[in-house]
């Protein structure tokens, strides 16, 4: 590895999802002005708007919104092909 190309401030950091207060600790070089104390240790704090614990895709709460009726248009357009394939 090349010397002196890695960040000097690579350390343990707490990331906090502000929508549900979920926190996790990982290594990062991200700058932070705030700190948080977890289990008696003070860590830099990075606030997140969304994480895997609150994202609809990962929580299974994602809804398919078909406001233009594209699914119905598709089914109407190809209903004859669908019937032939079933027969």
Distance between the termini: 64 Å
Written as H for each helix and E for each strand, in order along the chain, the element string is EEEEHHH
Low-confidence segments, given as residue ranges, are: none
Helix content: 10-25%
Whole-number radius of gyration?
Answer: 24 Å
Q: What number of domains? A: 1
Q: Helical region count? A: 3
Shape category: elongated
Q: Which strands sit side by side, in order, in the main sheet? A: 2-1-4-3
What does the main sheet amount to?
4 strands, mixed
Class by alpha and beta content: alpha+beta
Mean pLDDT: 81
Q: Work out the number of β strands.
A: 4
Strand portion, in percent?
25-35%
Q: What quaternary form is this?
A: single chain
Molecular structure report:
Helix content is 23%, strand content 31%. By secondary structure, the chain is an alpha+beta fold. It has one domain. Strands 2-1-4-3 form a 4-stranded mixed β-sheet, with no helix packed on it. A hairpin with a 2-residue loop joins strand 3 and strand 4 (41-48). The longest helix has 8 residues, at 70-77. It is elongated and about 65 Å long.
Give a topology summary.
Blueprint lengths: L10 E7 L4 E7 L5 E5 L2 E8 L7 H4 L10 H8 L1 H8 L1
Parallel strand pairs: 1-4
Antiparallel strand pairs: 1-2, 3-4
